[in-house]
Amino acid sequence: MTQFLGTGVALATPFTRENEVDENALRRLVQFQIKNGVDYLVVLGTTAESTTLSKVEKEIVKTIIKKENKAKLPLILGMGGNNTSQVVNDLKSEDLEGFDAILSVSPFYNKPSQEGIYQHFAAISEASPLPVILYNVPGRTSSNMLPLTVRRLANDFDNIIGIKEAAGDMVQAMQMIRDTPEDFLVISGDDMITLPMVLAGGAGVISVMAQGFPSEFTKMVNFGMQRKADEAYKLQYRLMDGIDLIFKEGNPSGIKSVLELKNLTESFVRLPLIQASSELKSALSVFIRQLK
């Protein structure tokens, strides 16, 4: 699945001061990614604050992104949850036209066993008309999808094509890269260790940082994919402070502040998230000036 190699961006959902979806800002955001060379877009993932969006709003977001993208970049749709039957029903009932794959998070809150995680994704695989990318993010789900479970899923289901691995554990990531089929995509979900994962054989990243700095981050990933480690690490070290900053007060509060500073969107988020502090916005402003 070469269309998902390189840099994917987890798109945020811009909001107006009145707490409505900012449709014009969303269009600008999509164009900003396309013009700056990212490889694909992820729609309605965690960074999109999708849990706070109504069904109508989700349809608005999907429609705008598809229309603005004009099939230029592959699109991945976030479709996951901790109620397996609901995810299966959504896969069977939703209009998935225009999307190339789904990204499905490991069940959260329930804290299932490894066998429970396996059976959850087995059901999703059987129901999905699109390729499936698993999403392991223990910091949000409170359970870790272990390499053995990933290997089982990769070997048992042809339409499970990859994983967004966001445990922040390089050893675990390397085990997944080593133990899964050669064409299985182990995609970084952790901006800070994207480059080491790529150099270890990973397929790239689904990034938050790249949304605000698509040109710089994509160049770093491309250098890594080309095994130009010295050039890649020069960019990595320039980006590191910014990566720390955007996650300092939660996601997507930090990256939305970057987008505001770049005059792309406002920085409004929906409760229970709150906007980044003035101190963080000031630090991000300094980082942006120094990066140029």
SSE topology sketch:
Blueprint: E1 6-10, H1 23-35, E2 40-43, H2 55-69, E3 75-78, H3 84-93, E4 101-105, H4 114-127, E5 132-136, H5 138-141, H6 147-156, E6 160-165, H7 170-179, E7 185-188, H8 194-199, E8 204-207, H9 209-212, H10 214-225, H11 229-247, H12 253-261, H13 278-291
Parallel strand pairs: 1-2, 1-8, 2-3, 3-4, 4-5, 5-6, 6-7, 7-8
Keywords: Amino-acid biosynthesis, Cytoplasm, Diaminopimelate biosynthesis, Lyase, Lysine biosynthesis, Schiff base
Active site: 135 (proton donor/acceptor), 164 (schiff-base intermediate with substrate)
Pathway: Amino-acid biosynthesis; L-lysine biosynthesis via DAP pathway; (S)-tetrahydrodipicolinate from L-aspartate: step 3/4
Describe this protein's structure:
The protein has one domain: Aldolase class I (TIM Barrel), CATH 3.20.20.70. Helix content is 48%, strand content 13%. It contains 13 helices and eight strands. Catalyzes the condensation of (S)-aspartate-beta-semialdehyde [(S)-ASA] and pyruvate to 4-hydroxy-tetrahydrodipicolinate (HTPA). Homotetramer; dimer of dimers. It catalyses: L-aspartate 4-semialdehyde + pyruvate = (2S,4S)-4-hydroxy-2,3,4,5-tetrahydrodipicolinate + H2O + H(+).
